[in-house]
Design goal:
With 414 residues, the chain is mainly beta. It contains 1 helix and 29 strands. The protein has a domain of 221 residues: YVTN repeat-like/Quinoprotein amine dehydrogenase (Methylamine Dehydrogenase, Chain H, 7 Propeller), CATH 2.130.10.10.
């Protein structure tokens, strides 16, 4: 199904929808700047609290009661512990919330991960702080925490010295079985990136598209606790054997760049179908890095993933002129306790909104639903910039704007 052939730039102030209906929008007290962290807590009193990370300050994270998705209520909103930093990513397990801190300056003391007790959602209480500060480290960009035992994250370390400053974050594993005293369990980086590595440094992307060799998403699922599915930005797709967490081993490496422009973001395994769904992130305004794709890989042979299709794309001509970024970004990642599907995949596409695809035939994915909100008031780009998506076990689709639009709750009718 293709986007209607209308002048979308002229109608950025109007929503567009196919098989998705807006239930509510919440502006989060006027503090937007939402990042890539969305995670749902089932509180002891039965409420559903959706925790959200902020990409920009001054806020750290926000909790919203979405028990009734038509009437969300702000229950908590915290301040960042320091200036020139962000909490781009978070996850909650039970009543423990893990928050990633990334700093603008290298070596800043706030860089790391903070754990909070959110058993009373209105009163988040700090449990501990795991420092990643010092040296070349800018802290933690993304984390994955679903089993209550280990946090898998992309972050710096004071003793990791990259050959190139753009490669300053590595895959790290944090043991939080004793949440008051987290300990590193393991780490890994693509060989050749660190000072002192015996291997040669990988060939860099052209200067105008060199985003760095470092992990972005580091997903580990209960179905395969011995595997980590890594989007390695300029390094493409990497799957690691982490049966021995102290010594991760690379099982496979697939990279579509060159000729494609890179920035591999999310690797979503579809276990019962031996597929990987992979998104590349658009990082330039006006589709300046087109195309940023969502790929489907045949993963029947673990050592040799093979691309078999890409998701259909909305009109480049129309959306690239709307303002801000346009192209793939985050995927709903089939987190435990959330909506999980082997056929319906949802993702955010910045000014292209949130979109759902049916991969029943993995060789011919079909777009089956989308919602593109109207440009929020004061939107700096003149258009929506949807940054992340989370679908709960009821099938309610939650998505949030990178700038000022806040949180949107949607009903998908397929």
């Amino acid at each position: 199904m293709s986007t209607p052939t209308i002048d979308l730039q002229a109608h950025a102030d109007r929503p567009m929808a196919l098989n998705m209906t807006l239930l509510s929008q919440h502006e989060l007290g006027g503090y937007g700047g939402m990042g890539e962290g969305m995670s749902m807590q089932r509180a002891k009193d039965g409420r559903r609290i959706l925790w959200l990370a902020h990409e920009t300050g001054p806020k750290n994270f926000t909790g919203v009661d979405v028990t009734d998705p038509r009437a969300p209520k702000l229950v908590a909103q915290t301040e960042l512990p320091g200036p020139r930093m962000r909490s781009n990513s978070l996850d909650v397990v039970g009543s423990t919330l893990a928050v990633a801190y990334q700093t603008s300056a290298k070596g800043a003391k706030e860089a790391g991960i903070e754990l909070f007790d959110v058993s009373v959602p209105e009163k988040p209480r700090s449990i501990c702080f795991f420092s990643c500060a010092g040296g070349e480290s800018r802290g933690v960009h993304q984390l994955w925490f679903v089993d209550g035992e280990y946090i898998h994250f992309s972050g710096g370390a004071p003793d990791f010295v990259p050959r190139n400053p753009k490669d300053d974050q590595i895959y790290r594993i944090l043991d939080v079985r004793n949440p008051a005293k987290p300990e590193e369990a393991g780490r890994w980086w693509l060989p050749g990136l660190a000072e002192g590595d015996a291997e040669p440094a990988p060939q860099r992307h052209p200067k105008d598209s060199d985003a760095g060799f470092r992990p972005h998403n580091t997903n580990v699922y209960p179905e395969r606790p011995d595997r980590c599915y890594v989007g390695y930005i300029d390094g493409g797709v990497i799957v690691l054997d982490i049966a021995d967490k102290a010594r991760p081993k690379m099982l496979c490496h697939w990279d579509p760049s060159p000729p494609y422009p890179g920035f591999t973001h999310t690797v979503l395994p579809i276990f019962d179908r031996n597929l990987l769904v992979v998104s590349d992130e658009s990082i330039r305004d006006n589709a300046g890095d087109w195309p940023k794709l969502v790929w489907v890989l045949d993963y029947r042979h673990e050592s040799n993933p093979v691309p078999i299709s890409t998701f259909p794309k909305a009109s480049r001509e129309a959306f690239s002129r709307r303002g801000g970024r346009f192209g793939a970004h985050n995927l709903h990642e089939n987190q435990p306790g959330a909506f999980r599907s082997s056929n319906i995949i949802l993702g955010t596409f910045f000014n292209g909104g949130v979109r759902a695809f049916d991969i029943s035939d993995p060789y011919r994915p079909e777009e089956v639903a989308y919602y593109v909100p109207a440009a929020p008031k004061l939107a700096p780009t003149g258009a929506i910039q949807l940054n992340d998506v989370y679908v709960d076990d009821r099938g309610v689709v939650f998505t949030m704007d990178r700038h000022v639009g806040g949180l949107y709750a949607l009903e998908m009718t397929l």
